[in-house]
């Protein structure tokens, strides 16, 4: 076990193993386990413990980089209904398909990376598969992807024809650091994985939402928490030649803020994914995406807290982070 991989036992268990150092309180009601598993659960997922998607102390480790594939020009965008029937402040979702959702589920890592097995991530992948499928996405799960495989998967997805799709979603479950995500063989910049969906590179997703949900650490800081008491008129229709910023219409929902750890329970999955699936399952088809993610923030911030006899890790908190370049309201 690396020095910064910390294990926790849920407080609801009646027996604690001798080598367990910490407890985590879960104030929210837990979702019932479904009997049918979409992603096969490994033997390591049977224990009900929490860990941090943390980075090891490895000054000599060098991340791998790889070549980018040339983008293929896309066909002109077509919609199934007249855009005039959709309010100007909302994304048009009246397409034949909602869109593709790719889930990258990295659990096991090469020894050279120094990263531990992410027990509990299969629970996340299973819950996310069911959740996004119920929303209407075409969902595919990819397990234990190397850096090059992640790059190739997203590059290929960006080169597909999304003309008949309303949006695109990608979920990454892995270890991480600030602005970096781990493949099984090392780390790679998140921006390198998402850049192929820019407006100038993926034409059939131009002016459509590109959603990225990232469950990973973004540093090594711990959140102590603090005790608390209880538009303007658009003229675009008159100018059909208007430009769109190439970085527009992206949304990044991170499990934690820059610089901080992100918590994961080996039996129930990560705090962020538990909250995200809970809110989407209940409100995903009638709330706007920022309302959904604000409720996710609230749930993670209020319903989860660590408790330990080691002062450094006593009563720690977590808050997700949303970075939005969306230009309209989004309703699934």
Automatic annotation (TrEMBL):
<keyword id="KW-0378">Hydrolase</keyword>
<dbReference type="InterPro" id="IPR002138">
    <property type="entry name" value="Pept_C14_p10"/>
</dbReference>
<dbReference type="GO" id="GO:0006508">
    <property type="term" value="P:proteolysis"/>
</dbReference>
<keyword id="KW-0788">Thiol protease</keyword>
<dbReference type="InterPro" id="IPR029030">
    <property type="entry name" value="Caspase-like_dom_sf"/>
</dbReference>
<dbReference type="InterPro" id="IPR016129">
    <property type="entry name" value="Caspase_his_AS"/>
</dbReference>
<dbReference type="GO" id="GO:0004197">
    <property type="term" value="F:cysteine-type endopeptidase activity"/>
</dbReference>
<dbReference type="InterPro" id="IPR015917">
    <property type="entry name" value="Pept_C14A"/>
</dbReference>
<protein>
    <submittedName>
        <fullName>Caspase-7 isoform X1</fullName>
    </submittedName>
</protein>
<dbReference type="Pfam" id="PF00656">
    <property type="entry name" value="Peptidase_C14"/>
</dbReference>
<keyword id="KW-0645">Protease</keyword>
<dbReference type="GO" id="GO:0097194">
    <property type="term" value="P:execution phase of apoptosis"/>
</dbReference>
<dbReference type="InterPro" id="IPR002398">
    <property type="entry name" value="Pept_C14"/>
</dbReference>
<keyword id="KW-0053">Apoptosis</keyword>
<dbReference type="InterPro" id="IPR001309">
    <property type="entry name" value="Pept_C14_p20"/>
</dbReference>
<comment type="similarity">
    <text>Belongs to the peptidase C14A family.</text>
</comment>
<feature type="domain" description="Caspase family p20">
    <location>
        <begin position="97"/>
        <end position="221"/>
    </location>
</feature>
<dbReference type="GO" id="GO:0043525">
    <property type="term" value="P:positive regulation of neuron apoptotic process"/>
</dbReference>
<keyword id="KW-0865">Zymogen</keyword>
<dbReference type="InterPro" id="IPR011600">
    <property type="entry name" value="Pept_C14_caspase"/>
</dbReference>
<dbReference type="InterPro" id="IPR033139">
    <property type="entry name" value="Caspase_cys_AS"/>
</dbReference>
<feature type="domain" description="Caspase family p10">
    <location>
        <begin position="240"/>
        <end position="332"/>
    </location>
</feature>
<dbReference type="GO" id="GO:0005737">
    <property type="term" value="C:cytoplasm"/>
</dbReference>
